[in-house]
From TrEMBL:
Xref: Gene3D superfamilies: 3.40.190.290, Winged helix-like DNA-binding domain superfamily/Winged helix DNA-binding domain (1.10.10.10)
InterPro entries per record: LysR_HTH_N (IPR000847), LysR_subst-bd (IPR005119), WH-like_DNA-bd_sf (IPR036388), WH_DNA-bd_sf (IPR036390)
Assigned protein family: Belongs to the LysR transcriptional regulatory family.
Pfam assignment, any one: HTH_1
Alphabetically ordered keywords of this record: DNA-binding, Transcription, Transcription regulation
Residue stretches spanning the membrane: none
Record-annotated HTH lysR-type domain positions: 1-58
Transcription regulation listed as a keyword: yes
Protein name from the UniProt record: LysR family transcriptional regulator
Amino acid sequence: MDEKDYELLLNLNETKNITKTAQNLFMTQPAITKRIQKMEEELQCTLFLRSKKGILFTPAGEQILPYAAELLANTRKLREQVLMSQNQICGTIRLGCSLNIAHYHLPPILKAYTDQYPQVDVQITTGQSKHLFQLLNRDEISIAIIRGQYAWDEACQLISTEPMCLVCSRENQGRPLTDYPYIGRHTDSDLSARINQWLAAHDLAQIRPHMWIDSIDACKEMVRYGLGWCILPQICLRDFDGYMEDLYMEDGTPFLRKTYVLYKHLYAELPQVKLFLDALLST
């Protein structure tokens, strides 16, 4: 077994789906099936079972996963240490970034960084902060840019703080919020709880969302057309031409959304990672 096999095992454990894993690893499904068969022949055991719900790991397969994660992490660290000893800025950065930050904040930073250090391979995974935190704990990414606070015993630095805002169309400005629909947005549990706290403090707890939407851009369009009001972070409102108002909690403190970068001290010793962190924290 080699590094690609370890990566395949971990990805299958994440997706539970051969098709998705093939897409993630830029492989064909027959190629994945062939590698699985080769691993099972080498280890002389069955690693997976196929079901209607997807891939199921056998007990033998589950026992291999922690070793695969450790071996893959150590292989990557060894490669990065060798590159560092060559006294050049190269190597790999495995970055996990929350969807909103990836959309609204990261591109100019990444553009400047890759222009300056073109030999660095920046591998980016975007997703919900909870999922990125899990990847960081499993050493599948080396840096996580996440929204909200998580219990992390290594490096954690605040990147930005922004207000949460009430947004509506100009035509609905000043209209009682109980008179027209509230548009809910699927987000992480911490922010959802704080939104519910704000609603309760303003006698709006009884309001049920007229619609639930995943995409911030879709929320803004619904609001722009006067279909309702919504609560959104300021970072996504730079191009919004409707009405927006910073929100405050019941005790008068601003309703804020914070973004942090989390990473292990070991990775920050790598020059390509340190320089990226410097660029990220200087903006």
